[in-house]
Write a structure and sequence with these properties.
Elements (H helix, E strand, L loop, with lengths): L1 H27 L6 E6 L5 E6 L8 E7 L11 E4 L7 H11 L7 H17 L54 H17 L2 E6 L8 E8 L7 H7 L6 E9 L5 H6 L6 E9 L6 H7 L3 H5 L3 H5 L16 H21 L5 H10 L2 H5 L6 H10 L6 E8 L2 E6 L4 E3 L11 H4 L13 H14 L27 H9 L6 H7 L1 H14 L30 E3 L18 H10 L9 E7 L4 E3 L13 E6 L9 E11 L4 E7 L10 E11 L5 H13 L4 H10 L13 H12 L4 E4 L31 E8 L2 H14 L8 E8 L4 H7 L16 E3 L3 H5 L19 E9 L12 E3 L5 E9 L48 H4 L17 H7 L21 H6 L27 E2 L8 H18 L3 H4 L1 E3 L9 E6 L7 H9 L4 E6 L10 E6 L35 H12 L22 H15 L7 H5 L3 E2 L2
Antiparallel strand pairs: 1-2, 2-3, 3-4, 5-6, 6-7, 7-8, 9-10, 10-11, 12-18, 13-14, 13-18, 14-17, 15-16, 15-18, 16-17, 19-20, 20-25, 21-23, 22-24, 23-25, 26-31, 27-28, 28-29, 29-30
Organism: Diaporthe ampelina
GO molecular function: NAD+ poly-ADP-ribosyltransferase activity; nucleotidyltransferase activity
Pfam family, one: PARP
Length: about 1250
């Protein structure tokens, strides 16, 4: 028995030590609230945990001693104590009470329960209620007799049900039952099997009052176009993450059908992240209310955009709309689909909208199971179901993901992600349905197809044109809520991702309301003046200060001091006036944040509201100054207001100054045009610089802009309208030097697109229209199809249009037209264009509007490069200007905001849009303008032909390798020892040996086809001994090795199954000794290319390249360089993206343009395409076969790469120098 006892004791010690390590990992990952450290004690089975809490004066050490250590954990309990002499009575009491309930609990469970109980005890110290400690095994505080039946896990009480339970009722004392945990795990395993990654973030223990888990999927698996990803600011390597938090009752399928949805206290958050799950602190912070953030909740303070493991959770542009949809209707729609398996998501949404939820939600699902059985008995495709209902007289086709399709839709539907092909709501028996998986499919369906649905009511919008950004349906209520109630695009997301596009929109709006509109004769319309803005922001219930304020309410007020002067002032202030009042005379000491107001007028001012102060015209300044202040506190005894000043302009006078106080009490809609224009100018002046708003949002993640203390609510409303009313998708191309930025590091996260910039316009900030307003874009494409045949070589042309700065706000919303005569119409009615930049630039400054004072752009003029249907014979005029009457033939593609100082030089672009030689557009230097191919979204962009790759459909983007390992703790939760399920291997491939044996062991055995006669290249003839051979790096066992293992396997398969003359590249895998160094030969170029002819003449059959991979691959690009032969440098007529030192320098291979989703096959295709370009073709340095040629060296390639990237403004990878200078031997 002694041997058995020793063995048991040893196993207990081993398990206890393992649990200590597991707890330490959880603490390091911030997964146990309030616990900051764990250390071993003086004896076996003893640990000391350190607790931090906002109500503790310092750190509190708490000891835990196992009382029956040899039988840990089954027959063990913990003695819990603290050596601190200053511990509060409530803390000591909580520790003593918990001690009695730790029998059989593991160390982690004990510490989690300790954290929860201490937090509750400490928070109750200042309250009136006593601390109530419950048995953690009895989640509802009932007596022990309720635990007699260990199999009674599915009773109402175990699930926290109560006849009066509603979603709004908070039950902090509810705990998870073991039966719920046993049901959650298989549900999450099903979701994992389908393709989700599962993250356990908070709770999910028997002692948990609230639990949070995440489901995530790579953006690369959602069949999203590159244009959509760019417009939505989602990287292909990002994870799309759904956070689920529930308290008490978990909504598994049977319970969801039996109970009203209001019984389930479930909340959702939707966003993206760099890893498959955020940190626990980030997850908890995502669920904080605005009030909690404003009161500095600990979770808000602990959250950062990126933790030490690179984890993030960021909202995306549709997060607000989708989260509201999830929280309000998701469970109800799932319930409808479980009751009616033939329903699609669209059917369920329509059903829910057409009847009261109370009418069906509380009814027992009498037919649910029979309907499911009937549905399962019918033959059903794994990818499609057919809805048995009709909507608006049209039968709908339904995918398994629940997406309805009208029969008249185009024959080539949008691809369905594999994740949505299998319908989790209709393809399994009810008891096997995974509700978390159904919720995730719901979220992914509406996210990936968001442009097909109304942002507010989420009904399907039938359209033949796919917009890049979602909008609302034709329902006026949806449009009102979109513009007026913040249900449009997230203004916070726009500021974070596109701050200078927002700056541009505000600047243009500000200019549009500065002066009344004059006609081309210089006269103004009679009556109410008209402004450049065509539509004022009416219907927003916007309250503004009265812009006219001609009647004074009272005379100046003074503080209640006992002097004759102030007494006289006070007496005058208290005189009753019968005239209408608009502003109040006050004495303002803004440096000390105090206003003195007449006692009689105090009732007109409310605390926590904004008012405007006007300092009268002073000789020194010549104009009044305006200050917007927030009233914090009103002292009714002294007539003093305590205020916060939004001092966007410096205070002009020290001490107390007489000012006019104007209330935000005038309805904007009731004003005439002049009053509306002046009010908008006043409000926009109170708007801080966009970079200041962005800095606030970065430092306060998930906060709303309205919580920013330095901005009046009216300014937020107007800003939301400005952004929401612009339906064009505008992207910033070139960087901006922002004088308002205080933290220069924050500029690095702003994306620019230098490869899309147009040279010779360095004095302007460039913006590109990824897509115009959808309705305008649709009409333009229709016109293009009708006017020009499909095989037209030049279906469109480009030309300049210049217009006054004040016109561009309306141009962005309504397009270019000729409703108003601005500069005369000497050549007929129509929109005027010029193919000479200087001509159009002359029309950009006819008015003297001032830029928005808080703008970083400081715009002086705007000019646009427009795409026009190429039908000059139908133009009104073609000389000296192009005059186009058909407004649907016109789309703006670039916007150039001119400012000072000049921007950095923009290099020429490699791939320019082929323009009609008869209609060439000229730049400021009167040379032909080089327009990047990305400027044209109306037809397929034809890259310069690369014959070696055109005969085979190369995948430019493929599924990412599993580079983000699932954490052991997550797998342990899903497949713990109490379950009969077997834990699978981790999704990420295990580290592999990088020797040649390991590489060849994975080689595809398919016989490589013999070299056909179409090429003179012969594999295996390269002398590898003459090339540099690198030693295996010391860090070759990380994630980069795992990704490279998959890359090598894929490239071997491609090479072995494709004829060499079609593939165009070759790697000798049999001779590969170091997986971090590839030697690649490019061959079989089109003989019509200058490069191919020169190679033939020089007797060169291949271009030898070296690819070096760093420790951060695939999150950092490889270093690619030419070894031989040498090429002409760019300055001597060379090209092909080959630098003077031989490095391949394309933005794709820099930190600016690289994506972890890029495959090496796609990289090779891009490099060959660049080498094959005809605009600036690559040329060999010499074609003499007898000339002695020297190989390029790695160091000269590195230096040339850095120089070239610097010229283009591309970001050099952090690990570049380490990657490019790996040690090795010459051969």
């Amino acid at each position: 028995m002694s041997q058995l006892h020793c063995c048991a004791a040893f196993m207990s010690l081993k398990r206890f030590n393992a649990d200590v390590r597991a707890v330490r990992t959880r603490i390091e990952d911030d997964e146990i609230s309030g616990v900051v450290a764990i250390e071993r004690g003086d004896s076996d089975g003893e640990v000391v945990v350190t607790v931090a809490h906002e109500k503790l004066p310092g750190l509190l050490p708490i000891g835990l001693l196992a009382q029956n250590f040899d039988n840990y954990p089954n027959d063990n309990g913990f003695l819990i104590f603290t050596a601190s002499e200053n511990a509060a009575t409530s803390v000591v009491s909580a520790l003593e009470d918990l001690r009695d309930y730790t029998s059989g609990m593991k160390l982690l469970e004990t510490i989690m329960a300790l954290s929860t109980r201490l937090d509750r005890a400490l928070r109750s110290v200042d309250g009136d209620e006593d601390i109530i400690m419950e048995d953690p095994h009895d989640p509802h505080g009932f007596d022990d007799s309720m635990e007699d039946d260990p199999y009674d896990d599915f009773t109402d009480l175990e699930f926290g049900l109560s006849p009066m339970r509603t979603k709004s009722q908070h039950r902090p004392n509810s705990r998870l039952a073991s039966g719920i945990l046993r049901r959650i795990k298989p549900d999450l395993r099903v979701a994992r099997d389908v393709g989700c990654k599962i993250g356990v973030l908070d709770g999910l223990q028997l002692s948990s009052a609230s639990s949070i888990f995440s489901l995530s999927i790579r953006a690369s698996e959602l069949c999203l176009s590159q244009e959509a990803l760019e417009a939505w600011d989602v990287e292909i390597s990002d994870y799309i993450i759904l956070l689920v938090r529930f308290e008490g009752l978990y909504p598994f399928a049977e319970q969801l059908l039996e109970q009203p949805c209001a019984n389930f206290n479930v909340d959702f958050r939707f966003g993206k992240g760099a890893k498959y799950k955020p940190s626990p602190a980030q997850a908890r912070a995502a669920f904080l209310t605005e009030a909690s953030r404003n009161h500095d909740a600990p979770e808000a303070k602990s959250q950062t955009l990126k933790d030490h493991q690179g984890r993030t959770f960021e909202k995306i542009f549709i997060s607000n709309s989708l989260e509201q949809f999830l929280n309000e209707q998701c469970l109800s729609m799932i319930k409808l689909r479980l009751q009616n398996p033939a329903y699609s998501w669209d059917d369920a949404n329509e059903h829910l909208r057409n009847m009261s939820s109370r009418a069906w939600d509380d009814q027992p699902p009498a037919k649910a199971n029979s309907d499911r059985e009937a549905a399962k008995s019918e033959p059903k495709s794994t990818t499609k179901t057919r809805s048995t209902r009709k909507s608006k007289g049209k039968q709908k086709a339904t995918t398994a993901a629940g997406a309805s399709k009208a029969e008249e839709e185009p024959p080539s539907p949008k691809p369905i992600p594999n994740f949505l092909v299998w319908d989790a709501a209709a393809s399994r028996p009810l008891e096997q349905c995974s509700v978390p998986l159904i919720i995730m499919q719901f979220a992914v369906h509406y996210f990936s197809r968001c442009t097909e649905y109304c942002l507010r009511c989420h009904q399907h919008i039938g359209t033949e044109f796919e917009a890049l950004k979602p909008f609302v349906c034709s329902n006026p209520l949806c449009l009102f809520q979109y513009l007026a109630m913040g249900f449009g695009p997230s203004i916070e997301h726009e500021i974070l991702t596109q701050p200078y596009v927002v700056d541009l929109l505000v600047s243009l709006c500000y200019s549009s309301v500065q002066f009344p509109k004059a006609n081309y004769m210089g006269t103004f319309d009679q009556g109410s003046p008209q402004y450049r803005i065509r539509e004022f922001p009416c219907g927003l219930h916007l309250k503004v200060p009265d812009p006219y304020n001609v009647v004074v309410s009272t005379t100046i007020a003074a503080s209640n001091t006992d002097t004759a002067a102030t007494s006289a002032v006070t007496a005058a202030a208290n005189e009753v006036t019968t005239a209408p009042t608009t502003f109040i005379k006050v004495l303002a000491d803004l440096r000390n944040g105090a206003l003195t107001v007449p006692i009689n007028d105090l009732g007109r001012v409310a605390s926590d509201t904004w008012v405007m102060l006007r300092e009268g015209i002073r000789p020194t300044y010549g104009e009044p100054a305006y200050y917007h202040v927030r009233v914090k506190y009103i002292d009714h005894q002294t007539g003093t207001l305590e205020v916060d000043v939004n001092a966007l302009e410096p205070l002009r006078a020290p001490g107390a100054v007489e000012m006019d106080l104007l209330l935000y009490d005038t309805e904007f809609d009731d004003l005439d045009n002049k009053g509306k224009a002046e009010s908008m100018i006043t409000i926009l002046r109170s708007l801080p610089p966009i970079s200041s708003l962005r800095e606030y949002l970065i430092k306060n993640p998930h906060s709303r802009l309205r919580s920013y203390a330095g901005i009046p609510p009216a300014a937020v409303t107007l800003l939301e309208w400005i952004v929401a009313s612009n339906r064009s998708c505008i992207l910033q191309v070139t960087p901006v030097e922002d004088p308002h930025v205080r933290d220069r590091n924050l500029l690095e996260s702003i994306k620019t697109r230098g490869q899309e910039a147009i040279p010779s316009l360095e004095d302007s900030v460039q913006f590109r229209f990824a897509q115009g307003a959808p309705d305008k874009e649709l009409r333009f494409r229709r016109a293009l199809r009708e006017v020009n045949p499909q095989n037209s070589k030049y279906p469109t042309i480009f030309a300049w249009h210049g217009s006054a700065l004040s016109n561009w706000h309306s141009i962005l919303r309504y397009g270019l037209d000729f409703k108003h005569v601005m500069n005369g119409r000497a050549f007929g009615d129509g929109v005027y264009f010029s193919q000479h930049y200087s001509t159009s630039q002359g029309f950009t400054n006819p008015d003297a509007t001032n830029p928005w004072p808080n703008s970083a752009l400081n715009i002086s003029s705007v000019i646009s490069l427009c795409e026009i249907v190429n039908a000059p014979e139908r133009f009104v005029a073609t000389s000296p200007h192009l005059v186009v009457r058909q407004v649907d033939w016109i789309q703006c593609r670039y916007l150039f905001a001119r400012r000072s100082p000049s921007q950095a030089r923009i290099p020429p672009q490699a791939f320019a849009f082929p323009s009609d030689p008869a209609r060439t557009v000229l730049g400021p230097d009167d040379n032909a303008l080089l327009i990047p191919l990305k400027a044209v979204s109306t037809r397929k962009q034809q890259m310069p032909k690369a014959p070696s790759s055109s005969k085979r459909a190369h995948e430019t983007t493929s599924s990412l390798g599993e580079t983000d390992e699932e954490q052991v703790s997550d797998l342990e939760f899903l497949f713990d020892e109490d379950d009969s399920s077997t834990p699978p291997a981790k999704r990420a491939n295990s580290a592999r040996d990088s020797s040649v044996d390991s590489a060849t062991a994975r080689q595809v055995t398919t016989q490589r086809p013999l070299t056909p006669p179409q090429t003179d290249f012969r594999p295996g003839t390269l002398d590898l001994a003459s090339l540099p051979r690198l030693s295996l790096p010391s860090w070759a066992d990380g994630n980069s090795a795992k990704r490279l293992a998959g890359d090598i396997k894929h490239m071997q398969k491609v090479q072995s199954s494709t004829p060499p003359h079609e593939l165009g590249w070759y790697i000798d895998f049999d001779s590969m000794e170091n997986m971090f160094q590839w030697i690649v030969e490019f061959h079989s170029f089109d003989l019509e290319l200058p490069l191919a002819r020169e190679m033939k003449k020089a007797g060169v059959t291949s271009i030898v390249l070296e690819v070096r991979f760093g420790r951060d691959y695939p999150f950092s690009p490889p270093f690619v360089r030419v070894i031989r032969p040498r090429f002409l440098p760019f300055s001597s007529g060379g090209g092909g993206h080959i630098t003077t030192g031989g490095a391949i320098c394309m933005e794709l291979l820099t930190a600016s343009g690289w994506s972890p989703g890029s495959t090496m096959e796609a990289v090779f295709v891009s490099i060959r395409t660049a080498m094959s370009e005809t605009e600036r073709p690559a040329h060999l340095q010499t074609t003499e076969t007898s000339a002695r040629m020297f190989d390029y060296g790695a160091n000269e390639a590195l230096e040339a790469y850095v120089r070239f990237a610097g010229v283009h403004g591309w970001v050099v990878p952090e690990d570049l120098r380490e990657t490019a200078t790996q040690g090795g031997r010459p051969g």
